[in-house]
Recover the amino acids of this structure.
């Protein structure tokens, strides 16, 4: 292949390192007003009154938005459950929830006006923890919420066992009771995973303009097309009335999925007489807008003496915060992801999303993955330990083989997990055994990629031989534009430099379901490949006619059509067809379940395999990850440089929730939603030895055998590190992050109890 | 039909009447600099030196552009002949030619800087008139000029008979000498047609930004795709490096065809370090940028005693001004258009474009049409008069019949000229005979539409049943968006309101050759029809599968697919196909000669038929057009309201060159390039009785039998009015416009000479 598989620099690289690249907040939108938001300082309270009189008197203030402006509409939205109002209506449910918003000529005026809005609250008892939430007589966060018609693949039950259960998923395979009855040993553990924040370099930023019934949005969004349809529904518009423009996005990681700040900005823009309104979050505001689910996972596994897994039962409680956001979908992923990558004929799991009075939790890189793979993999290590098995050999024996199914009707495993694990083990040990006092840990995880594999694309071959790709995948830093351009260049047989792919504008870019779930290379990649193949067919047929031969005798290569030694540049072919130096050839590509992508779900299994060598300072409890190796089973790396970068990025991100990241609440208040008190991984958190290896067996459903990646790398880090800590210290820690204090305490208490 | 043929209001009407519609100059482009241009005050001079030092010292000035900035490139451009420099290089060739340009933070600074640029000229003898130009030893305007590779359909001859002949076309049919030899009577006349200006409400306006090798243009242009390729060529870019955005255009009439001010603005933007530069012409500047060709037409016709035309010989000299612009193409049209709409087996014509030191002449509504139809039609009337024939009956006898060819291999007449003329005559006389002293005049003209029928389009059906049309026809006020939307709605069987069609952006809108030559309804109309039909086929097939029937049993209607009584909205069909409320169906349409449009040229004949009743005030020479009737043979009116509006608009525009419009030169200086001294038609110039009638025989090559219109209406006005004046006064005037002074003088001299 000429372009695919090559280590290309990202096409927007120079733009980004020179600061030329423009993100939503960089766009100069004439006459734009600044918006600021008044947020709840209470975890749970009834709003008695809102007085905006003084705020409106501030010079420069154009509009103040309160719940009273939303009485003419149904202000509730949510892609799973419509439980979230654009602004707090009767109650606030978490600290940081928007209560009012101001649009003003400048930011200072907006801030002053916000400070002058007087809200009278009546405090209500709040729900702080999962146990609080599920207690009898607990305060109820949502008396009712409508299921969203768009939410297909999770069953919403009106008959909730407890009113604070937002969503419950149940999965059962085989006969769990018999499995446990036949087991020689049963292992039971409870794990606690922290609240963590996405922290994208670019906080949420949206500009909205409502003019003449036409709504235009410039938004840092990973879901422009879902935003279009949801905003159309909310504000009574058609899809063609709503234009969503997405330039570069400075990181998303799920935090920019579905609607975030857009409805609020649009509602404010309804009041500014056509003037555009921009809301740019601070980091703190973004941290108070979305987060990953914290979780408690109870896991019980019955095994034979040789380690064969006979039964597994899991209950995972995911803290979804004050509103559902994408929580139900996270719950639906966790219920399967907690199965683990091993043969287990008898499996039962229950996954719950639980409302609490905290920041709403939604999608985050590998939704429900880290919370569910970590317990499985730490327990697997404990089983090996107790049974006296080598953790590597034990895993290799138990891993699902290629094409093995977790449950009938689902896609079998489309990779070679054993090869991947063996590769990690080999990488880990090639530098010799760990130094004295250090430990080694391994982990394997698989996650099912999300459904709705729907993408469409247009590829246009211009009359000078250049190519325009119109594809709605958002460039969130993952390199989508580069990869999609490579696929088009390959399929259309043109030099990579001739392909142009720009940002998304829903008025001109054809539909894409979303950017997320590691789907862009596989699903949109297939759509652009189809569209390019459509043009390929056309140019071949036209060139054949021009050569006066059958189409089979024409070969495309290097931006030209060849018939034997005769050669015609694409520019000549197109111009010849149209009879002038103009015209263009247009190709389209549709991908949907059963059309371009197999209808059997998941679309693919995303695999994450990692190994760590860690040293623990027994005096301070500090954990140092000295070496980390990752294997990413990518099927086929369209761009190995980018694939490695993504896999490494995922592993570094996971160092955060493994070692130090945690959003902490006390008395219903978030204590550290800022970059001083909440630490995210930096360069110094990268292990000294840090390598990623790509497994390329061409077994993915995407172009050239590619499959999704970039999320898998996040799941094995915490268990690999925990397992290495256990090997180094003999102590298994079941709560993240592994802060020095927590490790130190665990080491101390290990002197008295067993692990 | 549900949508086509209906009197729809234009879709952008409300936007325009409320002032919301945004034209190029209305776009808020952040950081935009104002440009002003220093123009030549000499008709012909050598530039000795340009001193910009003082100009550069003006605070706020960012860049000053002179010929020295163009030494690194070939600065000559032109779509027919590359004879025009971006800025005057060695010489200036007409008053108003750009010599230097300034970009500054504000307009006043730019104007001040322009006033401080010192240019030393060496005056040269200049060419004022056609006779001056063709004289032996006349000053030569262009020693050489390269033919442009894009200019296909005119033969450029290096062997020019005279160095000031820019272009010469010759046409010969039959045996002209024998024809004249057999003639009973020979008529010979010379006609003089004035220089006139386009006067669009929006003068030329272009903003250019050159940033990181990417050129973005916002321009009031009718030819965005030609601009893209020409600028790419001039500045060494690829098509994907050049983005041309065209919002609404406030009138074009040919004055915004091909490159006008764009190269100058781009060259200036090369010097502003990425800051955008906007040049907004004043009306005067636009008048000094482009105009219609003035012309002298010698026409000799030999007839039998019964009026049968045996031979015609014509020489038409078109004053093309200082640069070729689109002159060669105008020359190429005139050579045929001067044939007239009558049977004439022996025909010879020579059409010349002549350089003079005046504003360059290019395309203007019916290029070469008014200048060539008027002499034919006035002479026809004189022939009838001399032979004692009724001018109506004479014309009806001599007119070309349906499918009759002017020359072998060309398209036969695709309309019923007799029906149209009879209709005008009927309309004229239905109010009774003209009042005493008034006269009645008729005229018929046909024009061949230009070649290169190349358009492409994309139609997208969204998952809520709305439709996006991507078509590059520029909305110059002619109603293209409305007509194209009607065609798509009809073809796709959706309500008209569901169709959205926005402005052109060459990065997202597929190729269109140009907006002009009355081609949009016919050519682009066919492209969008094909694209819509492509979607129609898809939705039918998908719906059939969903109904579980054969595709033939499915009928589309009202935005839904029907199978008997069963009905599925398009939204359901699309969503069902993609398995979610998303996805979209994409259709493409290509039109080219031989693909969608017959390869036989012209694409269609555009017909203009008119009749006037005029009164002449013998004391003042004032001509009053009391009644004017026009018949537009439109094949099929996609939107009768708009078609009538266009036809009436053309007629009113023609009142200008007929009665009062003329750009006057003295001593090489234009005397009246402003709206005070140069009068354009206003409401009070509309005849008291003014009606247009559409002929709809479905005989056009466009959608539903439509053919181009909107230019035809301009051609019969001058001859009909002149013929009416002759009937009223007995005096034939062979020079336009019919100013009171000219008419009064003609009436006076008629007392001594015959007409």
């Amino acid at each position: 292949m000429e372009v695919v598989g090559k280590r290309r620099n990202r096409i927007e690289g120079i733009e980004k390192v020179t600061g030329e690249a423009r993100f939503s907040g960089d766009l100069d939108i004439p006459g734009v007003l600044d918006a600021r938001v008044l947020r709840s300082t209470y975890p749970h309270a009834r709003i008695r009154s809102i007085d905006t009189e003084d705020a409106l008197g501030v010079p420069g203030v154009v509009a103040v938005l309160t719940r009273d402006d939303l009485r003419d509409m149904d202000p509730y939205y949510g892609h799973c459950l419509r439980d979230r109002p654009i602004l707090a209506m009767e109650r606030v449910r978490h600290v940081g929830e928007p209560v009012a918003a101001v649009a003003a000529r400048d930011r200072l005026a907006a801030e002053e006006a916000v400070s002058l809005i007087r809200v009278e609250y009546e405090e209500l008892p709040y729900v702080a923890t999962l146990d609080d939430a599920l207690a009898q007589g607990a305060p109820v966060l949502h008396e009712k919420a409508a299921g969203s018609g768009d939410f297909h693949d999770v069953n919403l039950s009106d008959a909730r066992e407890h009113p604070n259960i937002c969503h419950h998923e149940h999965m059962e395979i085989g006969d769990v009771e018999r499995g446990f009855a036949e087991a020689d040993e049963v292992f039971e553990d409870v794990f606690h995973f922290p609240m963590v924040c996405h922290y994208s370099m670019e906080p949420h930023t949206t500009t909205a303009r409502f003019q003449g019934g036409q709504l235009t949005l410039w938004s840092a969004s990973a879901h422009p097309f879902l935003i279009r349809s949801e905003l159309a529904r909310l504000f009574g518009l058609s899809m063609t009335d709503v234009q969503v423009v997405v330039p570069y996005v400075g990181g998303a990681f799920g935090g920019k999925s579905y609607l975030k700040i857009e409805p609020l900005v649009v509602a404010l823009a309804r009041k500014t007489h056509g003037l555009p309104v921009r809301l740019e979050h601070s980091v703190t505001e973004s941290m108070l807008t979305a987060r990953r689910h914290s979780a408690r996972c109870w896991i019980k596994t019955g095994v034979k003496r040789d380690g064969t897994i006979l039964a597994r039962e899991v209950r995972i409680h995911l803290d979804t915060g004050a509103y559902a956001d994408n929580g139900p979908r996270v719950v639906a992923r966790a219920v399967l992801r907690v199965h683990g990558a091993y043969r287990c004929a008898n499996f039962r799991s229950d996954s719950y999303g639980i409302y609490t009075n905290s920041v709403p939790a939604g999608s985050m890189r590998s939704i429900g993955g880290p919370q569910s793979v970590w317990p499985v993999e730490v327990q697997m290590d404990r089983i090996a330990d107790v049974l006296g098995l080598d953790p590597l050999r034990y895993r290799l024996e138990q891993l699902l083989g290629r094409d093995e199914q977790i449950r009938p009707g689902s896609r079998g495993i489309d990779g070679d997990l054993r090869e991947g694990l063996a590769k990690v083990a080999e990488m880990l040990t090639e530098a010799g055994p760990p130094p004295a006092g250090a430990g080694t840990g391994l982990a394997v995880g698989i996650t099912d990629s999300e459904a709705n594999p729907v993408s469409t694309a247009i590829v246009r071959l211009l009359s000078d031989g250049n190519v325009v790709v119109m594809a709605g995948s958002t460039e969130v830093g993952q390199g989508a534009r580069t990869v999609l351009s490579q696929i088009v260049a390959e399929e259309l047989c043109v030099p990579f430099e001739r392909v142009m792919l720009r940002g998304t504008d829903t008025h001109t870019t054809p539909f894409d379901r979303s950017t997320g779930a590691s789907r862009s290379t596989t699903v949109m990649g297939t759509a652009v490949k189809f569209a390019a193949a459509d043009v390929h067919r056309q140019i071949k047929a036209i060139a054949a006619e021009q050569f006066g031969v059958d189409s089979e005798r024409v070969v495309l290569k290097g931006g030209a059509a060849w018939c034997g030694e005769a050669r015609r540049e694409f520019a000549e072919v197109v111009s010849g067809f149209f009879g002038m130096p103009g015209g263009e050839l247009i190709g389209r590509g549709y991908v949907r379940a059963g059309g371009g992508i197999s209808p059997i779900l998941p679309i693919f299994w995303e695999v994450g395999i990692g190994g760590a060598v860690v040293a623990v300072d027994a005096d301070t409890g500090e954990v140092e990850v000295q070496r980390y190796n990752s294997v990413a089973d990518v099927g086929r790396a369209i761009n190995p440089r980018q694939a490695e970068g993504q896999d490494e990025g995922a592993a570094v991100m996971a160092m955060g929730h493994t070692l130090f990241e945690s959003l902490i609440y006390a008395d219903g208040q978030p204590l550290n939603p800022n970059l001083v008190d909440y630490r995210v991984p930096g360069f110094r958190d990268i292990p000294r030895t840090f390598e990623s290896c790509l497994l390329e067996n061409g077994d993915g459903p995407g172009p050239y055998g590619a499959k999704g990646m970039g999320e898998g790398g996040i799941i094995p880090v915490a268990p690999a590190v925990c397992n290495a800590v256990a090997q180094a210290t003999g102590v298994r820690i079941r709560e993240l992050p592994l802060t020095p204090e927590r490790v130190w305490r665990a080491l101390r208490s290990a002197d008295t109890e067993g692990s």
Summary: Residues 149-159 of chain A have pLDDT under 50 and may be disordered. Chain A touches chain B through 54 residues (CB under 8 Å). The longest strand of chain A covers residues 309-321.
